[in-house]
Amino acid sequence: MSLYANNGKKLPLNYQYELSAATYHILASANEEFAEWLHENGFRMENGKQFKLFTFSRLNPEKFRILRQSNQLELLSDKVEWQISFLPEHSTQKFVEGLFQKRVFEVGNRQSAVQFQVDSIQMLPSPLFTDTMTFEALSPISVSQRLEDGRDYYPQDGEAFSTSDWVRERLLKNLLDKYEVTEGKPFAGEPYFNMMTLSDPKSTLVTIKAGTPQQTKVRGFLCRLALHCPAELMRIAYESGLGEGNSQGFGCLGRIN
Fold it and tell me: What's the pTM value of the predicted model, to 2 decimals?
């Protein structure tokens, strides 16, 4: 969708959490019960694991500059492109258009914020899902494993993200869990998964809830990539995001023709 920045020009450099919060607010304004359920529960597996099955891209302004000293992103143009994708049944065209049509919302914090208005919405047609497809990461792809001391460990560089067996295993497990929670049954086919990066993965460290006691840092990677997995899992990766933290703006994929 196309956004118009009608008030403010500077955003926090780490704005993904604030953009996620704005999305929840938009959901609540149209369907408070659904938004509350999505925020508090999402889709829950029997083991208690939860998924909030939507994802979104980074904001893509026509022109911008990064202000390193103040840790801000300055918009140098009024027009900003943004992509959001839902997997749940609520993601019908009419529902999404009704949610966001001409919507005005604010993203940012006390130091810097921008008010956006939705200028236009373009519904992207679903591609024909096959077992091999190529994508561009529109927001960082994050994947981690829990260490014995309770910390989350992320790939530390692009080579580890591209080549580590555990990364592919975690990405596949994530897709299988999402399939089970949405379909109500485990995936019955052969659960294969492979990933080949088509450009050097760019590491990015994103701060979530910056400046609060709950502040955390999440590492993700931006690149072009080819995926090889069953078409049913490919659809889930495209519509709800690849990897972890999708509802906080990680793992949004754009189709490469």
Answer: 0.87
The pLDDT tens digits of the residues spanning 85-121 come to 877 654 556 666 777 888 899 999 888 999 999 998 8
Give the model confidence (pLDDT) of 60-86 as tens digits. 999 999 998 888 999 999 999 999 887
What CA–CA distance (Å, rounded) separates 201 from 188?
32
Burial grade of 257 (CB within 10 A; 0-12, 13-18, 19 or more): exposed
- Give the span between the Cα atoms of 110 and 35, in whole angstroms: 25
Which residues are registered as beta bridge partners of 205? 219
- How far is Cα 244 from Cα 224, in angstroms, rounded to an integer? 18
What values do phi and psi take at 119, rounded to 5? Answer: -85, -45
The residue whose two tokens read 């494993």 is: 145
CATH of the domain spanning 2-120: 3.30.70.1890
Query: Residue 5 carries which side chain, given as an amino acid letter?
Result: A
Report the topology of domain 132-255.
Alpha-Beta Plaits (3.30.70)
Fill in the amino acid letter for 46. Answer: E
Only one residue has tokens 């143009």, namely 77
Per-domain residue ranges for the chain?
A: 2-120, 132-255
